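Just scan my protein:

. . .
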Amino acid sequence: MLVATATVLHRVYTFDQTLVVTAWTGIAITAALAAFSVYHCFTDSLLAHSALFGKSQLHVGNKSKPYRSFEIRCHDMCRWYSNTLNNRR
C-alpha cells in the first residue's frame, strides 16, 4: 500500500519538474519510506502505518485537485479516436 502510494506521490509531485528534481525527490521519498519501514518493523505500529498512508493520500488529493476539473468533450474525443483509426489503415 505504501509503495503504491509513494509511487503516485512521486509522479504527482514531479510530473512538471526537471530530471534532477525528479531524481532527488525519488531519492527522498525512497529514503523516507525505507526509514519508516525499519521503524514499522521494530514497533509494529499499525497507527503509524495508517497515518502515513492517509497523509500520503491527502497530499495526492490536494496536489491533483486542479487537474480533476478538466472536461473531455465526447465530440472531441470521438473525433480524435476516429482520426487515429483512419491513420492506421
